[in-house]
Amino acid sequence: MAELNGAPATAEELKALALVNYGHFTSMRVENQQVRGLSQHIERLVRDCRMLLATDLDREQVRAYIRQAVAGRDGAFVVRVTIYDPALELGLPGAPAQPHVLVTSRPIGVGRLAPWRVQSAAYTRDLPAVKHVGLFGAIWHRRAAQLRGYDDAVFTDAESYVSEGPTWNIAFYDGDHVVWPNAEVLPGVTMRLLRQVHDRTTLAPVNLTDLPRMQAAFATNTTIGVRAITAINDVEFPADHPILDTLRKEYEEIPAESL
Q1: How far apart are CA 187 and CA 129, in angstroms?
Q2: Which CATH code of 3.30.1450.10, 3.30.230.10, 3.30.470.10, 3.40.30.10 fits the domain covering 2-107?
Q3: Would the CA dihedral through 228, 232, 234, 235 be positive or negative?
Q4: Cβ neighbours of residue 18 under 8 Å, at least 6 residues apart?
Q5: CA separation for the pair 172, 217 (Å, rounded)
Q6: What percent of the chain has a predicted confidence (pLDDT) above 70?
Q7: Phi-psi bin for 175: left (phi > 0), alpha (psi -120 to 50), beta?
Q8: What number is the average pLDDT over the span 145-166?
Q9: More exposed terminus of the chain, fewer Cβ within 10 Å: N or C?
Q10: How confident is the model at residue 111 (pLDDT cuts 50, 70, 90)?
């Protein structure tokens, strides 16, 4: 399924995403026509549209396009909403932009996901606070980690302070608080929801040298929820620490919003 402004998207309209690759998006888990954190997903689209295209999105129109695209579908799946202008040219990106709304979907895995082993990589995404479509660097590091036998990469700055994964946030448990890295990251919706409902949460710098004192590590985003990380480089973490079940329960108890 691929609908652009409520109509089937054509190859010509989609070409700009491949050749110009300028825009932004959000991905959300839809379950029984409801989305946990839907309002925050919409607000992200509005905020990032102002940043990248210098114009405002109609919140209710975006929501209507999503509703139309998923009408009648049962169960759980992932919907991605991408905002871009098919008319924007590579040589004239400064031209006035008219945001278009592309809604696509894909299946989602069921059951608890296997834990990850990740490798650190010194890298900072362009405009880290924006969920933009420029994923080359992030995917390059993910591929490099997988070629070395890991499941994914986790990014650090030049001084080895941890920030985020290619498409997910990371946090740690120090035995008392859930610690989110105080770094340049994409403020993920799942991360923000967890910070709201888990009262023993802190924001602090986390260096690779701090990892041995952490009791658990995990990744979060809308499609994986809370996923255990069992290794960062050669530092091991348990896959079944009780904090992980606590966070999963708190997250699942957050009321979902109807489309």
Answers
A1: 6
A2: 3.30.470.10
A3: negative
A4: none
A5: 4
A6: 99
A7: left
A8: 98
A9: N
A10: low
DSSP state of 89: B
> Does the predicted TM-score (pTM) go above 0.70?
yes
- Cα separation, 48 vs 41, in Å, equals 11
DSSP state of 79: E
Looking at residues 171-176, what average pLDDT do you find?
97
pLDDT tops 80 at residue 109: no
What number does CATH give the domain 116-254? 3.20.10.10
- In tens, the pLDDT along 125-140 reads 999 999 999 999 999 9
Sorted by sequence, the CB contacts under 8 Å of residue 134 that are 6+ apart come out as: 21, 22, 125, 126
Q: How far is CA 257 from CA 105, 148, 248, in A?
A: 18, 41, 18
Paired tokens of 237: 């973490």
Three-point CA angle 97, 168, 197, nearest 5°: 105
The mean pLDDT value for 176-197 works out to 97
The helices-and-strands tally (H runs, E runs) of the chain is 6, 15
> In this predicted model, what pLDDT tens digit does every residue of 51-76 receive, in sequence order?
999 999 999 999 999 999 999 898 99
- Rounded mean pLDDT of 177-205? 97
The bridge status of strand 178-181 relative to strand 116-122 is unpaired
Is the separation of the CB atoms in 215 and 241 below 8 Å? Answer: yes
Q: Write down the domain spans for the chain.
A: 2-107, 116-254
